[in-house]
Amino acid sequence: MTTFESSMIDDRDQSSRTQRNLKLVVQTGLLLAKHLDLPTLVQAATDAGLQLCEAQFGAFFYNVIDAAGESYQLYTLSGVDREKFAQFPMPRNTEVFAPTFEGSGIVRSGDITKDPRYGHHPPHHGMPDGHLPVRSYLAVSVKGQTGEVLGGLFYGHEKTDVFDQDAEDFVATIAAQAGIAMENLRLREQLTRKFEESEKAEQYQRESAKRLSEVAAIVESSDDAILSKDLTGHILSWNQAASRIFGYSREEMIGQSILLLIPKELHHEEKTILAKIRAGERIDHYETVRLTKSGERLDVSLSISPIRDDSGTIVGASKILRDISGKKRTEASLLQAEKIAAAGRMAATIAHEVNNPLEAVMNLIYLAKSNAKDSDEVRTFLTAAESEVARVSHIARQTLGFYRENDSPIGASLSELASHAIRVYGPKCKDAGIDLEVNLNSTRQVVLRKGEIMQVISNLIANAIYAMPGGGTLSISIEDRDTSNGSGVVLTVKDSGVGIPSEQLPKIFEAFFTTRGTIGTGIGLFVAKQFVEGHGGKIYVESSTDPASHGTKMSIFLPLENPHPGVQEFDSSFD
Nearest-CA neighbor of 306 among 325, 284, 279? Predict the structure, then answer.
């Protein structure tokens, strides 16, 4: 074969290879445009590049750079199993790799081991032991349309001078196609995510609108007044029940101050409520009084919750108001019926109690008349009759304690009330041989009905004196008390008397129950408990009949907060 013929054959082979490569480039471009997932797309580009440049193996490294700027993620391999690279670290930001990942140019070397950029970095100073032999080296950046480097296609061969200019051009074309396809895929994914997020947002808005519509329907159909207000106390919403209960229309109330509904003497409540709302606290079933448009006073129960914006900041309050006037009237009727029934029982008890001494008086008067000539006998009979009449008087006085005063509550010092009671009962204690221990350590003002609490204190002291017929020690103390449920004052009356049997303790606050035989009416502690609880307080008892530590301790706790309207200042002088 002549040299010319050989040359013609080489030209035909070269032309055929070029045509085949061009066809492969076109097919690869179409293939890359169709792939919708990144792994398949990158693998197709890597395989095409391997075939076009006739390398032994190729790889695509994704451009993921760590904080040190030196980490690249191996994404695909072609022409070799992944296990061949599994034991080796990822490429670092060396002079050989930097141009590709920085996008500064194509690197093509006939023998990379002799390239002046090769082998300058420890610990390997080149390829690590066991690495596939690479002499011919070709690396092309894969860029998006914005110029962002997405990664790099890398090819190698154990022989030298394998990659020529055509190979470089074909791989560069594949890299360009891959970059466009990857960027389009990323844009498609971004659009898909945005569409899905938009769908979710629309779905959330639809569901929120549905929930709001349902809540609005519930609010409007509620029998309770439901409204909202800002932190200045101005009304923002007003439902139909609120209009029905108060007589104001929605148009009349939106923007108005909530104080329009609150009696003037209770305006201080709103300051307390707003302070609790600003602190993030709820208020549940708070009973108070509110005003209608006509001026009628309603007994209501309030439940109030903070309203927060999207950032969690408290911006207002929602309020549910229930008209409990009917309930209060029913309770008052029941209480009145109970009072009437109690009065009937008391009347029967009093009739029985009074009948005995009256019969004795009648008998004694008869005896006195029958022995009128004997003045000493008459005097003895009349003295006994006087004693029986005193018993009747005592029963009458005890009975009067059943009725409750109607005066408005006032601010008063419990210590001053106790001091007055001690001055009254002091002489009686002295005559009975009872030592008084007094510790009045509170100066707090408590909102109370003076007559009622004075009766409670007197009753406790009188019971203690009665419990020590042979003398003893009576301790009376008052101290401030602060608890998680609020602040107040505690009065304690403690005696060293005989004590109350444990089986009787649960009954001592029942009406008409007494441990004093025919002397007591069983009204005192019953009334005392009603009075204390009517002030929002509590009454406690501890007692022991143990010979070594006998005695009874009665304690009452009165809160500082006034549960009654109409508070006024109290003159410290007791009259």
Answer: 279
CB atoms within 10 A of CB 468: 21
Reported as a single tens digit per residue, the pLDDT across 560-571 is 875 544 433 333
Alpha carbon of residue 339 to chain centroid:
43
Q: In whole angstroms, what is the distance from residue 321 CA to residue 285 CA?
A: 9
> For strand 434-440 and strand 472-483, is the pairing parallel, antiparallel, or unpaired?
parallel
What local confidence, expressed as pLDDT, does residue 565 receive?
42
**What does the block give as tokens for 430?**
């002295």
- Helices and strands counted in the chain (H then E): 13, 17
Q: How far apart are alpha carbons 277 and 78 in whole angstroms?
A: 68
Residue appearing with tokens 């009458």: 396
- Each as own residue / partner, the long-range contacts of residues 364-372 (CB below 8 Å, 24 or more positions apart, any chain) are 364/388
Cβ neighbours of 442 (radius 10 Å): 20
> Does the pLDDT of residue 52 top 50, yes or no?
yes
3-state secondary structure at position 359: helix
Other Cβ atoms less than 10 A from the Cβ of 218: the count is: 11
Amino acid letter, residue 416: E
Q: Which helix (H) or strand (E) holds 143?
A: strand 136-143
Q: What is the largest CA-CA distance in the chain?
A: 185
Among 503, 500, 480, smallest CA distance to 490 is for 480
pLDDT in tens, 179-218: 888 888 888 888 888 888 888 888 888 887 777 777 667 7
Judge if pTM exceeds 0.70: no
* Edge-to-edge strands, sheet with 314-323: 235-238, 225-230, 314-323, 297-308, 283-291
> How far does the chain reach from its first CA to its final CA, in angstroms?
145
Q: Which residues of 281-318 are buried (b: 16+ CB within 10 A; e: fewer)?
A: eebeeeebbbbeeeeeebbbbbbbbbbeeeeeeeebbb
| Pick from 456, 460, 474, 465: nearest CA to 558 | 456
Residue 269, burial from CB neighbour count under 10 angstroms (0-12, 13-18, 19+): middle
Contact 480, 441 (CB under 8 A): yes
